[in-house]
Write a structure and sequence with these properties.
Elements (H helix, E strand, L loop, with lengths): L1 H68 L3 H6 L3 H4 L2 H12 L26 E6 L8 H7 L1 H4 L4 H9 L7 H13 L4 H14 L2 H4 L2 H16 L7 E5 L1 E6 L6 H14 L4 E4 L6 H14 L2 E3 L7 H14 L4 E4 L9 H17 L6 E7 L5 H12 L4 E5 L9 H9 L3 E5 L7 E3 L2 H9 L4 H5 L1
Parallel strand pairs: 3-6, 3-7, 4-5, 4-6, 7-8, 8-9
Antiparallel strand pairs: 1-2, 9-10
This protein binds guanosine-5'-triphosphate and magnesium ion.
Length: 449
């Protein structure tokens, strides 16, 4: 009995112990399950609070970044994307790195300098010395006719004749009037003063009263000035390369056409280079002359590099055994520096095509432009090594004096004069013939009448 009771007590103790233990484990499990709920609910609170300051920071950065890209900062900065824009910052750094090589363009100036790929060595020309004879013979009467306006009553010669011819006495007042006539006939102030000073000191008082002596002295002065060198062309090499330059409309292309006609007539083979690539009409104008004369015209595409076109013409002329290359260029104002620089480049490139080219650089001047012709001459002479002058449209001016002014100041020979639009109207310049035609008094009264 006692053991049975003892067993019962033990069983009761064990059961009690089990119940106790179970009752302790249950609250622990509840606590574990509730914890995540508490974390989840707390996190949104904290992130919501934290996000406000976080968003403000990127907004500022966005506002800084956007103006660099677009000038609309407000709407763009509201977007939550700014954090993604942060990585763009390195891109700006990259640009800085790229900007550094801007120093690299230094080598670039070396690259542009090369001229239109003239790599082959310059041609060595056959040397010779052939004066080009044209059918023009000394013909003072014909030349005087061409200078009709300058010989007329109100022209250069007519006005001089009025002052000098038939006078019994050339007094100081008349010398002043002579100076007025010379200056207003485009002789130029300096040249006019020199001429009159030399006449005054060269002639005795008695001779000054002899109109014949005064005319002779005047012609002597003109000859002295105009005999700056031979006129026409001398072919010293085959081909002889002639570059024509001058302001717009001075007569370059027409002179080339006339000259080509005369050269062809004297048995020379001519190549024309259409170096005026500026106007399509200029190439056509030269082509018309080429067809008329029967000579090759080398041209490039519209807007082609004039230096490259002339380079090619020289090579073609050389390989085909031509005697002369006449290179046309676009008219340009002597005051436009880039255009004058282009001419320098043309000239340098010609030298690369052929040794010594261009052999002649002729400045074509419109005689009717008066004193402006002097300014043109100076500027072109600064840019290029001019070898002579072609004075066109002498038939259209009453002021023949411009020839004297240019020759005296520039010390350049006049090579040709233009007295009309026909090929024959281009005459090789011969100083004494010209002086006789312009200032000869033989028919003074007739001419001045
Ligand atoms: N009366 C006369 N007219 C001439 C003479 N020489 C050229 N001309 C005329 O002058 C005008 C202009 O001549 P161009 O040869 O086209 O002149 P350019 O220098 O080539 O002109 P750009 O190519 O525009 O620079 C043309 O109408 C020619 O016929 C001349 O000696 N006397
Ligand atoms: Mg032209």
């Amino acid at each position: 009995m006692e053991t049975w009771i003892l067993l019962l007590i033990i069983a009761a103790v064990v059961i009690g112990a089990v119940i106790y233990l179970k009752s302790r484990k249950a609250p622990e499990q509840l606590e574990e399950g509730s914890k995540p709920k508490q974390i989840e609910s707390k996190k949104p609170e904290t992130t919501a609070a934290d996000k406000k300051p976080v968003r403000k920071e990127p907004d500022k950065k966005a506002a800084e970044a956007v103006p660099k890209e677009q000038p609309k900062p407000k709407t763009e900065s509201v977007k939550p994307a700014p954090e993604e824009k942060k990585p763009e910052a390195p891109v700006e750094k990259k640009e800085e790195v790229v900007a550094e090589p801007k120093a690299e363009p230094e080598p670039e100036p070396v690259a542009p300098t090369p001229e239109p790929s003239p790599e082959p060595p310059p041609l060595v020309a056959e040397k010779m010395a052939e004066p080009v004879e044209t059918k023009h013979t000394r013909d003072v009467a014909a030349l005087r006719k061409g200078l009709g306006k300058a010989r007329a009553k109100e022209g250069f010669f007519g006005r001089l004749a009025k002052l000098i011819t038939g006078r019994q006495e050339i007094d100081p007042a008349i010398v002043d009037e002579l100076q007025d006539v010379l200056v207003s006939s485009d002789v130029g102030v300096q040249t006019a003063e020199t001429i009159l000073e030399r006449i005054r000191t060269g002639l005795s008082k008695k001779e000054l009263n002899d109109s014949g002596a005064v005319w002779a002295a005047l012609r002597g002065e003109a000859s002295r000035i105009l005999n700056a060198g031979p006129g026409g062309l001398v072919l010293r090499t085959r081909p002889t390369v002639v570059l024509m330059v001058g302001v717009n409309g001075s007569g370059k292309t027409t002179t080339i056409g006339k000259l080509a006609t005369q050269l062809k007539a004297s048995g020379r083979k001519v190549v024309l280079a259409a170096g005026d690539t500026f106007r399509a009409a200029a190439v056509q104008q030269l082509e018309v002359w080429g067809k008329r004369v029967g000579c090759e015209v080398v041209k490039g595409k519209d807007g082609a590099d004039p230096a490259a076109v002339i380079f090619e013409a020289i090579q073609k002329a050389s390989s085909s055994g031509a005697d002369v290359v006449l290179a046309d260029t676009a008219g340009r104002l002597h005051t436009k520096v880039p255009l004058m620089d282009e001419l320098k480049k043309v000239s340098r490139t010609m030298a690369k095509a052929m040794e010594g080219a261009p052999h002649e650089v002729l400045l074509v001047i419109d005689a009717t432009t008066g004193q402006n012709a002097m300014a043109q001459s100076r500027q072109f002479a600064e840019a290029l090594q001019l070898t002579g002058i072609v004075l066109t449209k002498l038939d259209g001016t009453a002021k023949g004096g411009v020839v004297l002014g240019i020759c005296d100041e520039m010390k350049l020979p006049v090579r040709y004069i233009g007295l009309g639009e026909r090929p024959d109207d281009l005459r090789p310049f011969e100083a004494d013939e010209f002086v006789e035609a312009l200032l000869g008094e033989a028919q003074a009264e007739e001419d001045a009448a």
